[in-house]
Amino acid sequence: LGVLRGNPRVTVADLPGIYSLEAASPDEKAARAFLEKERPDVILNIIDATNLERNLYLTAQLIDMDVRMVIALNMYDELERHGNKFDHNSLSRMIGTPIVPTISKTGFGIEELFNRVIKVYEEEDPVLRHINYGDVLEKAIYPVRHALKLNGNVSKSLSKRYLAIKLLEGDPEVESFVKSMPGSETVIHERDRNVAQIETLLKEDCETAFTNARYGFISGALRETYEQ
C-alpha cells in the first residue's frame, strides 16, 4: 500500500500483474481475493498497448464485477511506432470506461490518468456498461442473478451479476462461498438448471461458452477500433 504523492486522500494498492481472474495461479488468487474482499473505490487497469487482446480479457472480467475502473493504455508509443492505429475513445464508449494513453518511461499521460481516476471516484465519468454475452448466456445469467438478489445473505457490495457468471462457469471458490450461505439451495438449483440449458443449446460446457463469448466481444471491439 502507498499514498499518491500530493494527494493524501488517495491510497494505492499495487496488485500482481495478471491476465485473468480465474484464480489458477497464486498471483491471480491474491489479486482476485483483494478485489472481492476490499472492493476498491477505483481500479486502475494498466494494459499493454502492444498486446491488446490478451489484456482486454481481464478487462472484460473486471467489467463483470461492476467495478469503477480507469484503463491506462501503456506503451502507447510502441503502438504508434509500429504504425498501428487504435481508436481508444470509441472502445472507451463501448465499455463505459475511460481509457488514457500513457508512456510510463517518459511520464506521458500520467497526470491525465490520475485526474480521470479522481473523476471516476467522484462519479463525474460514465458508469460501467455490461458486456452482452448473447441471448443464450444472458437468459441464463438473469435468473441466477435474481435468485442471488432474493437471498438476503449476499452482501450488497458484491455484484450479483459477477457471482451469477462465476457460478455458471463452475468457479469453485464462488460456489463454495455461495453454498456457505443459508438458503443457497435455490441459487444452486437455478444455476444447475441454467447450466444444463446452456450446454444443450450451445453444445459446449459453460466455462468454454463464457470464454468464447468474451473473446468474441474483444475480437469484435478490436475490429471496429484497431488497425494494424
Q: Please identify the structural class as seen in this structure.
A: mainly alpha
* Residue fraction in strands: 5-15%
Estimate percent helicity.
40-55%
Helix and strand sequence: EEHEHEHEHEHHHHHHE
Q: Give the overall silhouette.
A: globular
Strand order of the largest sheet: 3-4-6
Number of strands: 7
Topology overview:
Layout (H helix, E strand, L loop, with lengths): L1 E2 L7 E2 L13 H13 L4 E6 L3 H13 L4 E6 L1 H6 L3 E2 L1 H8 L3 E3 L8 H12 L13 H16 L9 H10 L2 H8 L5 H18 L3 H20 E2 L1
Parallel strand pairs: 3-4, 4-6
Antiparallel strand pairs: 1-2, 5-7
Helix pairs in contact: 2-10, 4-10, 6-7, 6-9, 7-9
Write a compact overview of the structure shown:
This protein is 54% helix and 10% strand.
What does this structure look like?
- The structure is a single chain.
- 54% of the residues lie in helices and 10% in strands.
- The protein is built from ten helices and seven strands.
- By secondary structure, it is mainly alpha-helical.
- Helix 7 packs across helix 9.
- The mean pLDDT is 91.
- Strand 1 and strand 2 form a beta hairpin.
- It has a three-stranded parallel sheet with strand order 3-4-6, with helices on both faces. A two-stranded antiparallel sheet has the order 1-2.
- The termini are far apart.
- It is globular.
Task: Write a concise keyword list for the protein shown above.
single chain, 228 residues, mainly alpha, 3-stranded parallel sheet, two-stranded antiparallel sheet, globular
